Amino acid sequence: MRFIDRKDAGTQLASALQLTDTDNAVVVALPRGGIPVGLEIAEKYHLPFDMVLSKKIGHPLHSEYAVGAVSEYGDPLLNTIVIDRLDQKWINKEISRLRKAMESRRKKYSQVLSPRSLKDKIVIIVDDGIATGLTMKVAIEAVRKQEAKEIIVAVPIIPRDTYHELLDLVDQVVAVDVPEVFLGAVGAYYSHFPQVDDEEVIASLKSFSDPDQIE
Predict the structure, then answer these.
(1) pLDDT at 73
(2) Cβ neighbours of 184 (radius 10 Å)
(3) Which of 44, 68, 175, 179 could be joined to 57 by an S-S link, Cβ 3.0–4.6 Å?
(4) Is the bond preceding residue 99 a cis peptide, omega within 30 degrees?
(5) What tens digit of pLDDT does each residue of 28-57 get?
(6) What span, in angstroms and rounded, lies between the C-alpha atoms of 56 and 133?
(7) How far apart are CA 108 and CA 113, in angstroms?
């Protein structure tokens, strides 16, 4: 399976979702790559939209290697085997830095995106793909802390082992493709997979037809 871009992935994912109960559902996406995917679902089903912020904690010597993840709510998720070898002060400082960055992003997007109450809602958490699932797991915990009634993870691509891990944490996992052999990176499944910048996100959110704002 290969997607043209995030819009194409979102269109295919919206079709795979086959959502029937739309009266009490909310789409929340992980910025920034998950937002264009999530907006396709919100548009198709005429659902309200929000975001859930989570970030991986990169190893101090190899930033691409995740030693944990943290969201704007709840406790961080840490790889205890690796974390025990790192300086605790550095870990605390990095978690604080990431949370401040998330707070700043939330504030930046607040000009076009109002926070949603997730209490007693069917919450669809969307990203442009999952590899290890660390950032999604803390996003799930953040949504759970807001007392969601039901949690659905929806992504275009996810490795089979991660898919089964997440099934134990949520009510449903929906994906377009769940390969047995994963290519190692989400971007490998896209023909066009550029970084999504804040300006692009804000422009997309401005053009989104929020059903709660339509008379």
Answers:
(1) 83
(2) 9
(3) 68
(4) no
(5) 999 999 999 999 999 999 999 999 999 999
(6) 10
(7) 9
- Closest to 131 measured CA to CA, from 65, 73, 74, 84: 65
Token readout for 210 is 């929020």
* 138-141 long-range Cβ contacts below 8 angstroms, 24+ apart: 138/54, 138/69, 138/70, 138/71, 138/74, 138/76, 138/77, 139/28, 139/30, 139/52, 139/54, 139/71, 140/166, 140/169, 140/170, 141/71, 141/73, 141/74, 141/75, 141/77
Residue 28: phi, psi to the nearest 5? -125, 135
Half-sphere exposure of 214 (CA within 13 A, CB side): 8
Q: What tokens were used for 192? A: 């066009």
pTM value is 0.93
d(CA 7, CA 29): 14
| pLDDT computed for residue 212 by the predictor | 67
Q: Is the pLDDT of residue 145 over 60?
A: yes
What are residue 71's DSSP bridge partners? 54
The H or E element containing residue 87 is none
Q: DSSP letter at 122?
A: E
Q: What is the SS3 assignment for 140? A: helix
pLDDT at 75 over 70: yes
Domains and CATH numbers, the chain: 6-159+173-190+197-208 (3.40.50.2020)
Residue 121: C-alpha distances to residues 23, 65, 117, 150, 162 (Å): 9, 34, 8, 7, 25
Cα–Cα separations (whole angstroms), residue 15 to 49, 107, 190 = 18, 32, 18
